[in-house]
Structure formats: structure tokens, C-alpha cells
Amino acid sequence: MMELINTISRERSAALFQEAKRYFPGGVNSPVRAFKSVSGPPLFIKEGQGCRITDEDDNVFLDFCCSWGPLILGHNNAAIREKVIETVQRGTSFGTPTRLGNELGQLILAHNPYVEKIRFVSSGTEAVMSAIRLARGATGRSKLLKFEGCYHGHVDSLMVKAGSGLATFGESTSAGIPAAFAQETLVLPLNQPELLEQVLQEHHQDLAAVIIEPIPANNGLLLQDRSFLQLLRERCTAHGVLLIFDEVISGFRVGFAGAAGYYDIQPDILTYGKIIWGGMPVGAYGASAELMSHIAPEGGVYQAGTLSANPVAMAAGYAALQQLVEPGFYEALDAKTQQFVAGIQSYCDERDYPVRIARAGSIFWMAFGRERIVSADQIDPASMEKFKHLHHELLQKGIYLGPSGYEVRFVSAAHTTADLEEARYAICEGLDTVFAT
Ligand SMILES: *Cc1c(COP(=O)(O)O)cnc(C)c1O
């Protein structure tokens, strides 16, 4: 690979990263932040305003990572900031119910017909862990079925990939997970109706739930046919297996009611995170009132949290979601993103660059190839060299993408049409450089 030349300074970020390595494994508190698959040290960000972030070397970037999805309103949204400050002045956590919690619960349930009752937790991972315990508790069964290419947080029994053979019990993808846990999980490729039916036929008596990201957005953007999701719904119902939609990314992103609303498919249990609290560390899971009655203290499925539904997160979430229920919010974001993505795609098509951009609402993903990609095995690992080059070029041009070619990109309401024009121009120029070498 050619040498990548830096025209921006990353001196202070580099020094801070050296220091951080003394404190944290790999210098980071979450692995993908380490810039392992792109060039140079990670950028240390000190400020975000609207759609722009500033690093410790005072470089400014148009941000398409948006904290990995939560910031659908951009950085430092005024209404969220003001509500948080007002709330913090009365204390940060009481470990009691609060009126703010009721207000947020009411707002969410009033605008999301797919959930009757909800429980607030403290991360997406915790939401998924709790959802699978609920599924197991409600059905009295233990096994799970997941799909290759979907990520559900760092939950033991879901950090699993397919073993040998097409539909088999999984092998863990992390050290430290007992084989017995991984064997509770079956793994299938996405978008394969026949395999799905086969596995449900064979295992339905042991299966508590099938879990899927209905808009798989953690390993590229693997948009499924609606017919596959519909079939999944029907077959789960027929076999008495619960269907969990992990909407930690898609929830409140492709519409207020997430992917369930986008496809109009009713799952049994839904999980949320990322957007739901306007940038605070929280998650949630929900289901019908009947299913949720299995949760303690109403029922026998135990799940608790010291900081669950703390008032600061509730305030931030309320201030954020109030803006999302405004009429036209998602339509405007969708139209803006559509135009932006179409501009890049037609630029590539005119030059015959092998680039294909997948999009769902304000989520997009650029693949270096020509085919439509619907399952994880279709992604060519060699194409990631192209992404690495593009990532580097774009940093020089003031565009920040999350540091991996497998990650999707997000447009926020704070990105104006002019910002997106600027980004489109830079991305097209970047692609010229990538394909010139
Ligand atoms: C991010 C994500 C998670 C994990 O959420 P955390 O808050 O990082 O624990 C789970 N599922 C999906 C689909 C996600 O995108």
C-alpha cells in the first residue's frame, strides 16, 4: 500500500494516546476507538457543536460518526443541554422513581404502537441481556437463534459465530466465554428463508427466542428484504418462539417507532439504546404488557439497576425525543440523506468506481464492490484497504468517519444541506484519489 501523507497535525492526539496506553488496555475504553484498522493514532476529541467536532490539535471535522449513532440531533443540542443543566441542579440520582421517568415513558409509549410497557436500563448491552432473560423466563426454554453479521452488545451468549456447517451451534468470538454458553446459541446467515425454516423445525422446542437487528447495521448495512423479516415473524409465531428486534441502532433512527414501524412488523420484544437518551449512557427494552409482567417485581424474571432511569438521563431523553416527534422530522432527515447519498452514488457510477451505497433513513454505508450486500459473508475483507485509504484522505479534508469500513455512517438533523454538499464534494475527491492508485 502507498504511503499515506498527513497534512493535518495529530501531534497532541498522538501524545495523549501514548499516555492513555498507560491507563487503559490498548489506550481506549472501547476497542473500535483505537483506530486499529485505519492509519495513525485515534483523534482525541475535545468538543462537538452541531455536525462538527474539534480534536485536541484544533482540527475541525464534519462528523458522520455521531458518537456511533446516538446524536441524531447533532452535538450539544441546545434543548438537551438546557434540560440537563436544569435537572442536574436538583441532583443527579436518587434511586427512586421520578416524575421525569413517567413523562418519558408516556412520550415513548404514546408514539410507539409496538411497545406497551418498557423498562429503562443503562446500556444497549444491558437491554439485550435483559430481553433474552425475559424471553427465557417467559418461555421456560434456553436456546437462542441469532444471525451472522448482527451485533447485540457484548452479551456472553451472543458473542457467537457459526461453527462449521451451515446452521450449527455457535463458537464464541471472544475469549472468556464458556463453550456451554456459546452452545446455547444457534447461528444462521441472514436472508436465507429455507435455512431458517429448517432450523425452526428442528429446534423450536428448545428455542426461547430469535434475535435479529431488523436493520443490521453493525457489520456494514445488510438491508434485508421485508419479505424475509415478515417470514421470520410468521414462522416464529407458528413455532411458538419469541421474536426479539434489537433496535439499539434502528430505534428512533429510521422513524420514531424504529424498524418495527419502518417495516410495520410487530416483534415480541424490542431493545433500545443509543438515540433514546440524547447522548447519555442508557438503554431500554419493551414488549406487550403481558410479556413485561414477567419482569420483577411483577414477575419472576429479575432485572435491576442502581442508576436505571436516573433523572439526568431521563431529562436528556425527554428533551431529545420531544424534538423527534415533531411532524416532518424524519421526512426531512430522510430526504437530506437520500440526496447526499444519491450524489455520491451517481458520481461513482459515472466513473465506473466499484462503490455501492446502502441506506436506510439517515444511516448509510459505502461498500467497495458492485453487488447488493445482504449477508456478512459477502463483504470482501480486501476491500477494507480501500476504506483505510479513503478514511485517511477524508481526515485531511476535514471529514470524520468512524474508524472502520464495517461501520455505518450517520447523518444528523444538524447537518445542513450545505454541510452535506461540502461532504459530498470531499468524499468524491477522496474516492478519485483512492481509485487513482
Ligand atoms: C450498540 C449496539 C448494542 C450495544 O449497545 P451498548 O450501549 O454499546 O452496550 C446492542 N445492539 C445493537 C444493535 C447495537 O447497535
Description:
This protein is an alpha/beta fold and 437 residues long. It folds into 2 domains: 175 residues, Aspartate Aminotransferase, domain 1 (Alpha-Beta Complex), CATH 3.90.1150.10; 247 residues, Aspartate Aminotransferase, domain 2, CATH 3.40.640.10. The chain is 37% helix and 16% strand. The protein contains 13 helices and 16 strands. The strands form 3 sheets. A 9-stranded mixed sheet has the order 4-12-11-10-9-5-8-7-6, sandwiched between helices. A hairpin with a 4-residue loop joins β2 and β3. α3 runs parallel beside α10, α11 packs parallel to α13 and α12 crosses α13. The longest helix is centred in the C-terminal third of the chain and has 23 residues. It is globular, with a radius of gyration of 22 Å. It starts with 10 loop residues before the first helix and ends with a helix. The model has no long low-confidence stretch (mean pLDDT 95). The chain binds pyridoxal-5'-phosphate. The site of pyridoxal-5'-phosphate has 15 residues, from α4.
How are the SSEs placed, and which strands pair?
Layout: H1 11-23, E1 45-49, E2 52-55, E3 60-63, H2 78-88, H3 99-111, E4 117-121, H4 124-139, E5 143-147, E6 160-162, E7 168-172, H5 179-182, E8 185-188, H6 193-203, E9 207-212, H7 226-239, E10 242-246, H8 258-263, E11 269-272, E12 283-287, H9 289-292, H10 311-324, H11 329-351, E13 356-360, E14 363-367, H12 384-396, E15 399-400, E16 409-410, H13 417-436
Parallel strand pairs: 3-15, 5-8, 5-9, 9-10, 10-11
Antiparallel strand pairs: 1-2, 2-3, 4-12, 6-7, 7-8, 11-12, 13-14, 14-16
The structure holds pyridoxal-5'-phosphate.
Residues 123-125, 128, 151-153, 213, 218, 246, 248-249, 273-274, 283 line the site of pyridoxal-5'-phosphate (PLP).
